[in-house]
Amino acid sequence: MNAYEIAKEQYAALEVDTEKVLDRLKDIPVSLHCWQGDDVTGFDQKGPLTGGIQTTGNYPGRARTPEELFEDIEKVFELTPGTKKLNVHASYAIFEEGEFADRDKIEPKHFKKWVELAKKYGVGIDFNPTFFSHPMVKDGLTLTSPDENVRRFWIEHGKACIRIANYFAEETGQTCVINFWIGDGYKDIPADRMGPRLRYKDSLEQIFTEAYDFDKVKPRCGILHGRFK
């Protein structure tokens, strides 16, 4: 008896039909994270990873260009069964030669090639704003920063990402889950716990004044260290 048959019997004892579960899973899309192909390097910054990011770093054969990353992703699509989506980070904007837009100024056109890839395989795209590995991350803070210039930059980044998520949903015809994950926080106990939380709340409220289709774009919000509560 193989391992699946053993597991099937054990689940059956709990009144779980594994065949029905597997059949249902065929229609539930699982996002393939684009950053798995290049170790969260991205295309818009040349500096080190910062903001609570932990990766293996410069592994042999990691993608170095959009073309190489696309080749890796396409191979995974070809070899992996089941329903899939792409998950793209904002730092993977693709610029034409001589062009650059900072994260508060990125536009849907900078993700056109991602949409073309998604359409080729008939998949949707989920999206992550990139609140790390950037000079405007000050003292480890972005949307909770007491520096209003820093906070304004990241609020505008969030709004830009809402517009891009809406573009993904419209172009692919599939829901775009946009994940507002930030690395803000402290590993010790800060004197002020309420201030950062109120600034975070205000930042999100400002970001979500950006218009989007509620049926097509699904925001999620999270914080890494969580030492503000």
Give an overview in words.
By secondary structure, this protein is α/β, with parallel strands linked by helices. It contains 6 helices and 5 strands; from the N terminus they run H-H-E-H-E-H-E-H-E-H-E. The strands form 2 sheets. The protein has a 3-stranded parallel β-sheet with strand order 1-2-3. Helix 3 links the parallel strand 1 and strand 2. The chain is globular. The protein starts with a helix and ends in a 6-residue tail after the last strand. About 30% of the residues are buried.
Q: Could you give the topology of this structure?
A:
Elements: H1 3-13, H2 18-25, E1 30-33, H3 66-79, E2 84-89, H4 112-121, E3 124-128, H5 148-172, E4 176-182, H6 194-207, E5 217-223
Parallel strand pairs: 1-2, 2-3, 4-5
